[in-house]
Design brief:
The complex is a heterodimer. By secondary structure, chain A is of the alpha/beta class. Chain A folds into two domains: 210 residues, HUPs (Rossmann fold), CATH 3.40.50.620; 28 residues, no CATH class. Chain A contains seven helices and twelve strands. Chain A has a seven-stranded parallel beta sheet, sandwiched between helices. Chain A has a three-stranded antiparallel beta sheet with strand order 8-9-10. In chain B, strands 3, 4, 5, 6, 7, 10, 11 and 12 form an eight-stranded mixed beta sheet that branches. A two-stranded antiparallel sheet of chain B has the order 1-2. In chain B, strands 8-9 form a two-stranded antiparallel ribbon. In chain B, helix 6 packs antiparallel against helix 8 and helix 9 packs across helix 16. Chain B is α+β, with helices and mostly antiparallel strands. Classes of the chains: A alpha/beta, B alpha+beta. At the A-B interface, helix 2 and helix 5 of A face helix 2 of B. The complex binds flavin-adenine dinucleotide. Flavin-adenine dinucleotide binds next to strand 3, strand 5 and helix 12 of chain B.
Chain lengths: 258, 538
């Protein structure tokens, strides 16, 4: 089986995000990057599926500047077999262009399965995986909490929550795009032997400029800003009766919630 | 329990002070790259925070259980041990021949900081296994190596180091355990050991004890007559499968102040005259072999001090930023709290530089292709090792005290982590050679290394640094003060050498610990000032 994992490198959740002076984006200085956590679930599921369906291979694909090769290497150290780095060539990208470039890179590779995260934790757009499936004309199932490979190794049963404790159960024939939700699995660590092995695994580089064709972004970011800082709380003082009065007044007039 | 570490400081030392890229020039590490080192550290920190730290508090409360026969480690340790082993962490710094990972010690030190800071009690198990396996790997016969080493690094079997006996603590030469030669070349071991860490537990199917014992007829009451033996808990057949139990009995476990998750055992060998051991390396070379492994073990022991101090400081800092007392201020805004936090920060960062840099000297001393360079760096590592062990553990303890003071009364309460940190870190000044013994080692052995040349070269390196930077505007005053301190260490060392030269040991021995502290303070001052110079240039 041939399995792809789509990875996005995102700022570590611990990183303090600073907006650029001209509000055109965020400062990339001093940011520590990690693999988007949902994509780690995707890597784990891809490797588990490979282990159940030998001979299979897992190919980790990431689009972005050179630094994203680190994310690919981590996937290789976890157990993926090959990497594809698509250099973004500094092109302007939105979800649409990203999906187009990825789909064009995957198009002729005849993947049976493409695992992705349900969304990336930086922009939380949750659009790329679905569009990739659309451009490749294959089914997609996002929010997968359970993935069970069929006995024929050509299909799978997938579970996801639809709110209120209800689960949806799907079967899907390959090829398909599966978007991982938290809880799908527990991602393994890149072990020390794995890190040593990863060094010799091949990573191919493609250029987004060769794959983008005529596609132009459909959305542009106009402006970035941080959420307003939370104002300090107010401490009321006095006797209980006065306090209650003051509170009701404030809730009505300032907070405007009653 | 949450574990936090100042990763920026870790990276700063590795990248800008140590310049860890220099390690890649050593043939031993040519298969590595900086990206790999970084990935290793990322994964180790993640593993420490997500897998190790969560069991720290519960294992302290639960402790180890002994039912009269077997010891049970706290909940979660068994699974964690296996995971830890699978990730290749047990033998991370040893050669790849028997399943080690061959990482430089300089990279293993920060890994070890993350792991020990997350649970020093848990780390005792893989730590002792590593030490025991590496001894076999370095000195034992091919046959013993092939049977034992790989299974230990892979997590299948554990390991221990058995030196201490009731009458033989600091004076290991007084051990009474004997090893009677047998016709087939093996030995019958008979005797009792106490305080054996990981002496029994349920993490692995077998435990391999490395036991110091004396072959009858060899010199008594001296370390010269001691030999080293491999003594498995369960005998191992030639094909590596397990055989009969080996007459090793767990007599008891200790109840103690800290590292409660680490089983400290009293072991009886050969109650029924049926305990078989195998000689490691040469007869009567036991202490020498142990000593060759000592540097790393002592550095890792000093690292326990730093790692817990680091965790305690981060915890106190986070608390100080949210605890509000008086005028609606967080306590971090009060000058006295800032004073405490600054002392903790300076101590932790200074110890970190000392320990990491000593590991770097150790790597250079072992693997540099140029013999002269090897000698130069090895000397530095030898000189600094007692300081790392002793100053690291003592100051580590002091930091936890200040961390508790920063918390106020809450620090004394078990719901908060610092009281456990304080209890856990205390052991590091006691075992692996008490800090008093470390001070004697510095004074008696290390100052006179290569006729005093090592300490002179080290002095020279620092002195050159002072000269080169004495006009740096912001450090001018500090450096001139520092120079006085440096010279007074040199003068003290000289007068000690002069006194011992004419046979007067009393005064130097009385002052050994004070001298170690004074010297360590100056070394740390040097590393911190070097950091200041680097930071200024950037
Ligand atoms: C939790 C724990 C785990 C341990 N794990 C192990 C283990 O795995 N394996 C093992 O073999 N041992 C282990 N030990 C034993 C430990 O290494 C010894 O306790 C240590 O060596 C000190 O010996 P002692 O306790 O007999 O103290 P003593 O040697 O009696 O020392 C008492 C005091 O006298 C001082 N002193 C002694 N001799 C001298 C001297 N010549 N000059 C100056 N001062 C001196 C010491 O510094 C100390 O302050 C462990 C101990 C503990 C508590």
């Amino acid at each position: 089986m041939k399995i792809a994992v789509l990875l996005k490198q995102v700022p570590d959740t611990e990183t303090k995000i600073r907006v650029k002076g001209d509000a055109s984006g965020i400062e990339s200085d001093g940011i520590k990057y990690i693999i988007s956590p949902y994509d780690e679930f995707a890597i784990e599921e891809a490797i588990k599926t490979k282990e159940k369906s030998a001979p299979s291979e897992v190919i980790a694909v990431s689009l972005g500047p050179v630094r994203v090769v680190d994310a690919i290497r981590t996937a290789l150290a976890m157990g993926a077999d090959k990497g594809i780095h698509i250099d973004d060539c500094g092109l302007a990208m939105d979800s649409f262009v990203t999906a187009k470039v990825l789909a064009n890179a995957l198009k002729n590779e005849n993947f049976d399965l493409i695992f992705t995260g349900k969304q990336a934790i930086d922009d939380d757009a949750s659009q790329v995986s679905q569009m990739v499936a659309e451009f490749l004309n294959v089914p997609q199932l996002m929010l997968a909490e359970k993935f069970e490979l069929g006995a024929d190794k050509k299909s799978a049963t997938i579970e996801r929550s639809v709110g209120g404790g209800t689960k949806e159960v799907y079967t899907v024939e390959f090829p398909a795009v599966i978007g991982a939700e938290k809880g799908l699995n527990t991602p393994r660590y890149a072990s020390l032997p794995g890190i040593m092995k990863a060094k010799t695994k091949p990573v191919t580089t493609l250029k987004a400029s060769d794959l983008v064709g005529e596609t132009k972004p459909k959305t542009t970011n106009v402006n970035f800003r941080l959420p307003p800082e939370r104002a300090a709380g107010k401490v009321l003082q006095g006797e209980p009766e006065q306090l209650a009065q003051q509170l009701v007044k404030l809730l009505r007039e300032e907070a405007k919630v009653i | 329990m949450e574990y936090n570490v100042n990763r920026r400081d870790v990276d700063f030392i590795l990248k800008e002070q140590m310049h860890y890229e220099k390690l890649l020039e050593l043939p031993a590490f040519k298969d590595y790259s900086l990206e790999m080192f970084d990935m290793v550290l990322d994964q180790a920190l993640k593993f420490a925070q997500q897998e190790v730290a969560p069991i720290n508090a519960s294992s302290d409360k639960e402790g180890c259980q002994f039912d009269g026969k077997n010891v049970k480690a706290p909940k979660g340790f068994k699974e964690l041990y296996q995971k830890f082993a699978e990730n290749g962490f047990i033998g991370s710094d040893v050669p790849t021949t028997y399943g080690g990972q061959g990482l430089p010690f300089s990279v293993v030190m920060p890994m070890s900081e993350f792991f020990s800071g997350s649970s020093v009690a848990f780390m005792m198990y893989p730590g002792l296994t590593r030490g025991a396996a590496h001894l076999i790997e370095t000195f034992a016969s091919e046959e013993l190596k092939n049977i034992y080493v790989q299974k230990m690094y892979s997590g299948q079997w554990g390991g221990t180091m058995g030196l201490t006996e009731p009458q033989a603590g600091s004076s290991v030469g007084d051990i009474k355990t004997i090893a009677e030669p047998q016709a087939d070349g093996s030995y019958k071991i008979k005797g009792g050991k106490i305080f054996i860490s990981s002496g029994d537990h349920d993490l692995t199917e077998n435990i391999i004890h490395l036991v110091l014992a004396r072959i009858p007829g060899d010199p008594e009451a001296s370390t010269k007559g001691i030999s080293l033996f491999v003594v498995p808990k369960i005998r191992v057949n030639k094909d590596g499968t397990l055989g009969e139990p080996n007459d090793v009995r767990t007599v008891n476990i200790e109840h103690k102040m800290g590292i409660k998750g680490s089983a400290t055992c009293t072991l009886a060998f050969g109650d029924n005259d049926n305990c078989i051991g195998y000689l490691v390396g040469n007869r009567m070379a036991g202490m020498k072999q142990m000593f060759q492994m000592m540097n790393e073990a002592r550095l890792l022991c000093g690292m326990q001090g730093l790692s817990i101090a680091g965790a305690a400081y981060e915890s106190a800092l986070a608390y100080a930023k949210v605890r509000v007392q008086g005028q609606g201020k967080t306590i971090v805004e009060w000058p006295d709290v800032r004073r405490m936090l600054m002392v903790q920060k300076a101590t932790v960062e200074g110890l970190r530089a000392l320990l990491y840099m000593t590991a770097f000297y150790e790597d250079m001393g072992k693997y540099h292709p140029d013999a002269e360079k090897r000698e130069y760096y090895e000397g530095f590592a030898d000189l600094l090792t007692p300081m790392c062990k002793s100053y690291g553990s003592d100051q580590g303890f002091r930091v936890t005290e200040l961390a508790m003071q920063t918390y106020g009364g809450y620090g004394y309460i078990s719901e908060y982590p610092v009281e456990q940190y304080m209890r856990d870190v205390k052991i590091s000044s006691l075992y692996e050679g008490t800090n008093g013994i470390q001070a004697l080692d510095l004074l008696g052995r290390k100052l006179s290394l290569r006729g005093g040349q090592v300490v002179q070269q080290f002095y020279q390196m620092i002195d050159e640094f002072v000269t080169a930077n004495q006009n740096t505007p912001v450090l001018k005053n500090e450096l001139s003060e520092f120079k006085k301190a440096l010279d007074s260490v040199a003068q003290t060392a000289m007068s000690f050498m002069e006194m011992t030269g004419r046979g007067d040991f009393n005064y130097p021995m009385l002052s050994a610990t004070n001298f170690l502290n004074m010297f360590s303070g100056v070394v740390i001052g040097y590393f911190l000032m070097e950091q200041a110079v680097i930071a200024q240039k950037n």
